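Hey, can you fold this one?
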Amino acid sequence: MEEKQELYKQRTEKLARIGELGEEPFRYSYSRTHTVRQAYERYEENKAGSSDTNVKLAGRLVALRSHGKSTFADLKDDSGKIQIFFGLQDLGQEKYEFLAKLVNIGDFIGVEGGVFTTRTNQVTVRVQNFSLLTKSLRPLPEKWHGLKDIETRLRQRYLDLLSNDEVREIFRKRSGIIKSIREFLDARAYIEVETPMLHPIPGGATARPFVTHHNALDRDLYLRVAPELYLKRLIVGGFEQVYEINRNFRNEGLSPRHNPEFTMLELYHAYVDYEYVMSLVEEMINHVARTLNGSTTLTYQGNAIDVKAPWPRMPFFQAIRQFAGVDMEPISDADAAREAVSNLTLDLDPSAGYGKICDELLKTYVRPNLISPTFIVDYPVELSPLAKSKRGNPRLVERFQPFIGGLEIGNAFSELNDPIEQRRRFESQMKLRERGDEEAQRLDEDFVTALEYGMPPAGGLGIGIDRLVMLLTDSSTIKDVVLFPQLRTVTETVPEE
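Sure. Predicted structure:
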């Protein structure tokens, strides 16, 4: 710590000296002509290696190697890194001394000069003039070319990004994934919409909400746990294909797969059911994988995976029997369910009902085994208050979830459009709340009223963008694909699921 303070002091002293010289240490702009990548391209086009390949570059100094009357450095911008050469003969005594005495690794500079190759065949800019653009007052981390400390990486993501090229590449890919999803849906006539993030009633998902207070209205509001009920209001209102890429907030624990705020794609399509949506998911994931990697094959945590359609479908209760070794299908109440799983290792809340117990079986015993793309289909109605009953079996609903690489990446239904049944389902959920289940859904009267005006048959889908990015970038934790993940404070310990 004392060493860091001393380095900070030295740099602030240099800052003062720069001011005394009448130089501006924090410039307003710089008119660069090329990025680093374009400088390489310019050299390749010219192949002359002479000063007529002039460029003006700007970026951060990430290395300085002084050799008396000459100095080599590395300049880095968003497109890459290039070697630059400063010579006393080129710059003159005053400018060269400014470089030697007042410029540090981490500073932003602009340079002008011609592109050439050194005797070791390294493309280099011979600097004829340079400008200090921003003085860095804190030194970059030691061995910054490969910053490894997890705490520093996540708490100071800016250091992680400037230190690790592979981290920046993950977030470039994340942007590409979202862009390809939009392209896929826009090409199929879906309309992108926006719905509220502040809800008077938290709805659309089984989750514990965050609560806030609106001063002017003097009432509590809830951060969105899902946009579902608003998007379905749009289907009632006459839109037939809508989607939203949105931020959701759920007051749940932290884990490698959970962050309290996360990004979802949610869409609704009139006149189709969950069979159609399954095909849509297969097609969309294929499209995204091909766009990102040029292939439907990928590697996730050591597993070779091909997302090419079609994906197998496994009924919910069959999956429980196969992987957990317990038959939950004949059971219909919480007490019997709890007895059936008494010999298994499950983290069950005392208020857990039948549906919650089934869900924990799925998460604990089934999900880790679903490496190849798989649809788990036909869930118990207790788990899915917003889905239509399965044709021929009212104990089940027409719901599926896609799993890949042991990750649950989505959720989809044939959407419930019967307002009478929807009210009954909400009332059942409210009884669970009365028994202590804080995640159970609440009765939304306005949504039921909307259904009473009539909603056409529809299929709905939610895809977790963060988990999809985890899969497609081979990232083991959600913290690696969220730029600024929620973290515990340094002095507190938060149990991870």
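The longest strand covers residues 54-66. Let me know if you want another pass with a different chain boundary.
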